[in-house]
Request: fold
Amino acid sequence: MAGRRTNLALLWAAVLALVTGVSAFLVGTPAGRWVIVAHGVLSLVIVVLVPHKSAIAARGIQRRRSGRLLSIGLGVAMVATLASGVALVTGQLEDIGPFTTMQIHVAFGLLAVSLTLIHTLQRPVPHRATDFSRRNFVLTGGVVAAAGGLWLVFEGVLDASGWRGGHRRFTGSHEISDPSDIPYTQWINDSVQHLDPGTHRVEVAGTSLSIRDLAATGDRVEATLDCTGGWFTTQSWKGTRMDRLLEAGEGSSIVVRSVTGYWRRFPIEHANRLLLATEMADQPLPDGNGGPVRLVAPGRRGYWWVKWVVSVQVDDRPPWWQPPLPIA
Reply:
């Protein structure tokens, strides 16, 4: 594969791996599994192209061209991204020091894509009409097919090995069955809140409710909390269904807020699927898992499950009137 075509292929593989990696955080139902598969295959496309790129890089280093340090940094970031991805998928390494494997993978992935774009700006590789020839489409298809074959082999080996990674959920997350093993995770700058269950109250559409009020209803749902940190747990959650608390026919969306200021917006028609939970596995929610009350949102990733809920409001804004991923 010619050097220019290799560089173009790596650029597109890196960008699309970033797009599918971010999109993977949005997947909450099995219909989105293809996003995770695509992310894995695109990562292996980079692996397939490594021998070609290594030859190009070796020639560049021998010529002592400017930007060598950037190229070396890009190579290190790519290796770290792929290595942390393998560790994440296999489930053999959950964290390194204070950082989870997912955090390391995301950080190096963003660094690798950033360095790729800078490298491209320094040494532009313009597209040509011949790049869209039948021969190049066949070559591209061959690379993707080779990467897809590697992905199938890798998944088969994982399944046969008995490793934790062989039993991942469709999102790629690993199961935690024991409630006491569930990590305490927060989104970006949030920190664990310590609220008094005896005095904490939740404002729901103008009505102030205590934790005892919310627990008394006894609504129960079995739902899977799937964290973007790479783990999931299926538990029984107990509390009050949202549709019991809201007047029918009012507003377009429900806004659920945490005492930290964190919030998420939901379609009003999903009120009967949402639960304000005060218990998990027949035990009061621990502080680190959102106690004394958190939202349970079946079919959505963990960042939708607002912790330490302080208010639930209905308004006329559409449900999509929010960032796809929380920004604070």
